[in-house]
Write a structure and sequence with these properties.
alpha+beta, nine-stranded antiparallel beta sheet, 13 helices, globular
């Protein structure tokens, strides 16, 4: 076959392979062999088909899921790669972190816990903090430690400098905010900025409940309420508390934590024991002060009541009332097993005044509940005469039943609203009382914060009123308080017609160094 006998197909479409073969055929440098020539001829003799339009390719990737997997593996690979670094390099990296970041790093895993608690790192942070505070204060309490901090890193026990740093920060913040407690309210005799100081020092409270099997649960208060001289805390049961009969001990702790920027982590702090109750010993002496159709209020000791469901023995809530007197010290300056011990204050001895320690008192009494303040009144310059001392008690009358102008009207009825999870109710004739007695030097002498109950009196106290008469009687080892009330039908209000505080003679003799 000659080259001239070969017939090439006529190009009807713009097909690049056909044009390529035509160009190859016209090239004078291409020589065809036997089989290859026949194959090319057969290929060029095929019927020409028009190519279809290209279809869009749909991606089957899942970007969100793939990204999550990649992010997960990238974090794991990052942590693993960091852990493979030599400890010297890791320590160098951690040396640039502050206390908050270093504390957060210690919660990653065991390796970073060991590295982040290195004494050399915390010694550096502690020293830097001392230098910073020394610039602010000319006299630094930790100045001797500042001189020896760099040379005693290895001589201290493990974790010493970490604890020392947090302790110094806590002491600095305490001295900074404690000065705000100096302004004293003339009405109550208590510091007027107590709530603000407690909030800025991050002071809170925890309730630890132990059952007879030895199990413990620690709860934070579900809500709190501050008034002029007291704070009331509530802990709801919600299935977290054992039955009332199975509780062996109740412990109230004050908790103070260091302010660190560590979201999601429990800040370092201290727990101080404030009260410990042996429930087995208090089971018989617990007093029922009120009830409604759902709960029964049992007073364990002044300031602490337990609400028990009436249809069962389970605990509905626990309520604790704390007076402001030395509340900051009681909540932060004790230990986890030993409460704060109040320093003994003795008034100067006076042998000239024959009734020294019997006059110049100031009494503030407040009644309130979770909804409103029922009564808040101060009584200055109350006194007692020697002839009024009887039964080991010094009588300090504030409102006399015979002087009608002293009688005080209450703003609302006496009741105590409560709430627990989805249930709520109101216990009638119960409320919270706050009592503050100051001596003639305006020093707190007797301070009380506790729930109280109002009971009906059978015989009328004053014949000037024809309504029902009631009595609120509070009693503890330091004294008593008796408040007599009458219900006026026309005004539909309660009036206080008598208020007398009774102080133990032993307490007065011990405080004023007398012998009444």
């Amino acid at each position: 076959m000659r080259k001239s006998d070969i017939r090439y197909p006529r190009a009807t479409t713009d097909l690049r392979p056909s044009e390529g073969h035509i160009a190859t055929k016209n090239s004078s440098n291409v020589k065809y062999g036997g089989h290859r020539r026949e194959r090319d001829v057969a290929y060029m003799s095929r019927p020409v088909q028009r190519m279809a339009e290209p279809k869009a390719v749909v991606s089957k990737m899942r970007p969100a899921r793939t990204w999550k997997r990649a992010d997960k593996w990238s974090r794991a690979s990052t942590v693993n790669s960091v852990e493979r670094l030599p400890s010297e390099i890791l320590m160098k990296i951690l040396s640039y972190l502050d206390a908050a970041a270093l504390f957060s790093m210690s919660h990653i895993n065991k390796l970073f816990y060991q590295l982040a608690n290195n004494d050399a790192l915390w010694n550096k942070i502690y020293t830097a903090g001392l230098i910073k505070r020394k610039k602010r204060e000319p006299i630094c309490a930790d100045e001797p430690l500042l001189k020896t901090a760099a040379t005693e890193v290895q001589d201290r026990a493990a974790g010493y400098w970490r604890r020392r740093h947090f302790t110094s920060v806590a002491a600095y913040e305490m001295n900074k905010w404690k000065s705000n407690l100096r302004p004293i309210s003339l009405h109550t005799g208590m510091p007027s900025q107590t709530e603000r100081v407690l909030s800025n020092l991050h002071v809170s409270w925890e309730l630890t409940v132990s059952d007879q099997s030895g199990r413990q649960c620690t709860l934070e208060p579900s809500r709190s309420q501050f008034c002029e001289t007291c704070v009331t805390l509530w802990w709801s049961g919600g299935g977290g508390l054992p039955n009332y009969g199975q509780i062996s001990t109740l412990q109230l702790h004050g908790v103070r934590r260091i302010a660190l920027n560590c979201p999601g982590l429990k800040k370092p702090g201290w727990r101080c024991l404030m009260a410990k109750l042996d429930m087995e010993a208090l089971a018989e002496s617990a007093q029922v002060i009120g009830q409604d159709r759902l709960v029964e209020l049992r007073l364990l000791q002044p300031g602490i009541i337990v609400g028990v469901w009436r249809d069962s023995s389970s605990v509905a809530f626990v309520m604790v009332t704390l007076h402001f007197h030395r509340l900051l010290e009681r909540s932060s300056q004790g230990s986890s097993v030993c409460p704060y011990v109040e320093p003994i204050f003795r008034s100067p001895f006076d042998d000239i005044d024959p009734e020294y320690g019997l006059h110049g008192y100031q009494l503030h009494v407040a009644l309130y509940n979770s909804a409103c303040t029922i009564m808040s009144r101060s009584f200055p310059q109350i006194f007692c005469r020697r002839t009024q001392i009887s039964d080991g008690l010094i009588q300090l009358p504030a409102i006399s039943s015979t002087i009608i102008s002293q009688h005080t009207r209450l703003s609302s009825r006496i009741n105590l609203p409560w709430s627990c999870e989805a249930l709520q109710g109101t216990v009638k004739n119960c409320c919270i009382m706050s009592l503050t007695l100051l001596d003639e030097f305006k020093t707190p002498f007797w301070c009380v914060g506790s729930p109280v109950s109002m009971e009906r009196e059978k015989t009328p106290v004053s014949y000037d009123y024809d309504g029902k008469h009631f009595l609120i009687h509070y009693c503890d080892s330091d004294g008593q308080l008796k408040m007599k009330l009458v219900w006026m039908k026309e005004q539909k209000q309660l009036f206080v017609i008598s208020l007398v505080a009774y102080v133990s003679v032993c307490k007065v003799n011990r405080h004023f160094n007398r012998n009444y």
